[in-house]
Amino acid sequence: MLTTAAAQCPGEQAGHTMRLAADRAESLTLPACGHSPTEEVPAAPMDALTRS
Q1: Which of 6, 32, 36, 38 is the most core-located residue (most Cβ within 10 A)?
Q2: CA 6 to chain centre
Q3: Domain ranges of the chain
Q4: Do the Cβ atoms of 35 and 8 come closer than 8 Å?
Q5: DSSP reduced 3-state for 30
């Protein structure tokens, strides 16, 4: 499971919550992002999903 969040909202909170629910959860906090990761840095989540 991969969570992505903007540094400004909610940041690492999403990753922390998912790690409570899933054994293999990963979190990606996007530092150069405000509130909408998929609009502001759309390539970042896909890059994280496809990296080996």
Answers
A1: 6
A2: 7
A3: 2-50
A4: yes
A5: strand
The number of helices, as runs of H, and strands, as runs of E, in the chain is 3, 2
CA distances from 46 to 12, 20, 21 (A): 19, 23, 22
pLDDT tens across 18-44, in order? 889 998 888 888 887 887 877 888 898
Kindly give, in sequence order, each residue whose CB lies less than 8 Å from that of residue 12, ignoring residues fewer than 6 positions away: 5, 27, 29
Please tell me the pTM assigned to this model: 0.63
- Token look-up 């496809």 returns 50
C-alpha closest to that of 39 among 14, 11, 4: 4
* The two structure tokens encoding residue 35: 């509130």
